[in-house]
From TrEMBL:
The lineage of its organism: Eukaryota, Viridiplantae, Streptophyta, Embryophyta, Tracheophyta. It comes from Cajanus cajan. This is Chloride channel protein. It comes from the Eukaryota. Residues 696-762 form the CBS domain. It is a multi-pass membrane protein.
Amino acid sequence: MNEESSLHKESTSINDTMEEEVEERDPESNPLNEPLLKRNRTLSSNPLALVGAKVSYIESLDYEINENDLFKQDWRSRSRTQVLQYIFWKWTLAFLVGLLTGVIATLINLAVENIAGYKLLAVVKYIQKERYLMGFLYFAGLNFILTFVAAILCVCFAPTAAGPGIPEIKAYLNGVDTPNMYGATTLFVKIIGSIGAVSAGLDLGKEGPLAKEALTITESSGDGFGISTTIVTDAISSPVVLLQGAPVGGVLFALEEVATWWRSALLWRTFFSTAVVVVVLRATIELCHEGKCGLFGEGGLIMYDVSNVTVRYNAMDAIPVVIIGVLGGVLGSLYNYLLHKVLRVYNLINQKGKMYKLLLSLSVALFTSICQYGLPFLAKCTPCDPSFPDICPTNGRSGNFKQFNCPDGHYNDLATLLLTTNDDAVRNIFSTNTPLEYQPSSILIFFALYCILGLITFGIAVPSGLFLPIILMGSGYGRLLGILMGPLTNIDQGLFAVLGAASLMAGSMRMTVSVCVIFLELTNNLLLLPITMIVLLIAKTVGDSFNPSIYEIILHLKGLPFMDANPEPWMRNLTVGELVDVKPAVVSFKGIEKVANIVNALRNTTHNGFPVMDDGVVPPTGVANEATELHGIILRAHLIQVLKKKWFLKERRRTEEWEVREKFTWVELAEREGNIEDVAVTKEEMDMFVDLHPLTNTTPFTVLESMSVAKAMVLFRQVGLRHMLVVPKYQGSGVSPVIGILTRQDLLAYNILTVFPHLAKSKRK
């Protein structure tokens, strides 16, 4: 009775804590280095995070192998054929993920190229007839409708489909399971929303939404095989392949930026998935090459080819290369800082309701359309270079010399950059051997505009990515620096634009190796390798001295409990024993437990793991004194399975091996769904017993209470744990073999500092 009372009190305090956290959610009152969710001064609070537009409970993933009796028996009984079958299914799933992601992404590209292309062709016809107002109304109206479709789907049907998706995937691969992130509805909204938002000319990319689509496909196709979490990393590289034409860069992106754990087998499967995607992409391009797919299919895998220029260096070139690297680091960190502020403001607007989120998206779309159509009127018309008689001026959808409002034989350089798709804008500003193509004032306007659009577009209720916006911003100041350097350097202005884009990506996202390879694959110019590497190293070093990467900032804002690779130095001054001392007492079970105790514990706590201990056990060492044995840890999901299947005993006894195999399968124990409220237990069954030994993980990870938090955090992250048992340094009669359990939330730096504020002083020192 006392145990039930204490459990009820603990449940009440947990519920009160959750209500206080939701009620106290006031982003404005938090410092800018705090997440949008307030946290109480306790290590026992349930994890909350911003998932989509709602505050949601989140859980950790069970990456650890549950070595209970059933698992051991199943593993011993597997034949060589079954093992080979398991390996075959993993490779088959990797193939399906690459194939399905490739098909879906190709369809998105096909739709975007045709919708945006025919829209721009229609606008050009109005401009040629000097019907500028009708051209603007058509341009802005169609963009408004496309954005409305994308936003209304995200706002009303799948709020989690909005945004980039890569931060959530990083958290997923780090061991965080967020609810309602991946499903058929989210996949559908992501596809339609991406088509609408990108076709509307918004300053965003498709790699983020497609990354989440790839993960959704993986989760759906991997369900039931128990291997979906190992295939997720394979899927993340596919969008980079399709949208940037960089297969090897996609593999390195998954390794450098997204994956928490990496091994050679995973590298093989990821490379295999990207190979499948490349085949799909190449086959589609060949199929559509002769106009069978409308405006899609021109070109090849090299998206921004700059191989037609000779790269030569001299001593003076070191100066602009260093300047670009420093600018990339400074501007990248500044962009991260300002975007942090903008996202907090957007969060306040989004809290007001669905209508406000929709109006915000439509306002950004209207502002973007006004700028893209109106600003080219500020630019002066430039006479065409006689050496380009066939391509200047350009009146079609794509080209470097758009005529716009200029007379024959002249072109508008700002319209060339603004009144086009984002992909074509990158191609145009990367153009080589055209030193007089753009005026400095036009490049400055382009750079300023895309800095503003890059800040206000990311965060609205549409699927979005960060790659293209950052490339557009970086290429702007890179090209401008190339114009200003002029005769002082041998580097082409188009190559300056490439270096600027790379430097801003390194300065904001803090990636180096993957960005280097991605840009080499995009531009098809290996001679850029030395200066690209130098620029990336300088930009990342400068950026790291100011703030974290943009994805880390978003993770922190959302409150997702991402576990960093490197612990804080002050964590070595704190032991895990001190952490568990400030937590509530651990709730444990006996090896043969009464049903009533299990039901009460599940109903009155939110714990997902419970130690299983046996009293009165004589150690095999021959010591006569009886001791308490730690048998292992049992998961909440397995206890719910026991209650659902009514696996009860009328007397206290150990079950036989055949009894367990008769009632449970390893597939059933792999499931993590189930709620105690859905389980009905009669009064008579409450007095029965359950043998927990066969379902208990007998090999949990345990650490001594004297271990430092820093060391425990490294172990927790590298092994992919969900529960870490803390055992006493000195054991004897009457001493419990487990003094506490640490979870992901307990080892996060900002949670620890709320309980031990004095450590913040040592952190500042």
